[in-house]
Amino acid sequence: MAIAKAERLMNLALCLLGTRRPLSKRELRGSIEAYLEAGSDDAFNRMFERDKDDLRELGLVIDTVENLDGDTGYLARRDSNRLPPITLDAEEAAALGLAAKVWQQARLAGAASGALQKLRAAGMPEAEDAYEVHSALEPRIPVHEAAFEPLMLACRDRRPVTFDYRKGNAARPEQRQVEPWTLECWRGHWYLAGWDRGRGAERVFRLSRITGKVRSRAGAFTAEVPDVVTVRETVESWAGETATRTALIRLRADSGYPLRARAISVRELGDGWEELEIPYGHGLDAWLVEFGPDVVVQEPADLRADVVDRLRAVAKD
């Protein structure tokens, strides 16, 4: 069975690489003997989708194209699947090896390991891992959100998605239709940037606020993907990083360390509380709500009112 699957994957890869126009599922089924032997359309569709995902995992870039009739076709462009000669010295190889260890998420860990094996097979030097020899610590990027993996694949494959999303001040989630562009981690949280079809504008979504499953949708992007997506700058503006004034808050001792890191001044109040002066900008209220009962806003009054409104909205859920 392993040999049969390998032969089927090879035939599919050759078909996709050898065509100059996108091939539909029907055409691919008629060109590959193993697909012709599938007992039903459902069996063929399941087999084809698994094979397509397996080829992408192996590194083949497969484009999904919708023709004028609305049919979906597939092809693997040669220019997208050809690498220029790669030459790395020992230090560059060591940096790649270290980067490959960063990911804890299973799919990315496998992809990083496979990429290193391919580079070593192409002649990349086996560098001594000085980081591992001299340190008991290792860098890690945690990924806890279930939405991360499907969104990562959707960004890679340029596939539109839908998901239920609850804003910080909303009692219930609402469905969003998004063309995903990129994922970025900022201060321990993952964010998605993309084109929100319902709002007709670029939006940034925090993955921890996505509820339920992320579902892929057929069809091409309707908005142009920008060359540079400023996820971090957008999130920073929401969190008050571009502040022009300050706020005074009470913070429970031994809590709220991200707030302490930004504090301009700290004063002990007793009874397990401290007073912090922090930069105040648009969106600071949404960030303060995340600390729950450990934070009390003293001033300005409009910030205090915004935080109270958000807490009440959450309590009604």
SSE diagram, text form:
Layout: H1 2-18, E1 23-24, H2 25-31, H3 33-36, H4 41-57, E2 63-66, E3 72-75, H5 90-100, H6 106-121, H7 130-134, H8 148-157, E4 161-165, E5 174-186, E6 189-196, E7 201-206, E8 210-216, H9 231-238, E9 245-252, H10 257-262, E10 265-270, E11 273-280, H11 284-289, E12 295-299, H12 301-316
Antiparallel strand pairs: 1-3, 2-3, 4-5, 4-8, 5-6, 6-7, 9-11, 9-12, 10-11
Helix pairs in contact: 1-4, 5-6
Structural commentary:
By secondary structure, the protein is of the alpha+beta class. The protein has twelve helices and twelve strands. The strands form three sheets. A five-stranded antiparallel beta sheet has the order 7-6-5-4-8. Strand 2 and strand 3 form a beta hairpin. It is elongated and about 75 Å long. The termini are far apart.
- Give helix % range: 25-40%
Taking all residues together, what is the mean pLDDT? 80
Q: Secondary-structure element order, as H and E?
A: HEHHHEEHHHHEEEEEHEHEEHEH
Spatially, the strands of the biggest sheet line up as 7-6-5-4-8
Structural features:
five-stranded antiparallel beta sheet; alpha+beta; 317 residues; single chain; 12 strands; 39% helix; elongated; four-stranded antiparallel beta sheet; 12 helices
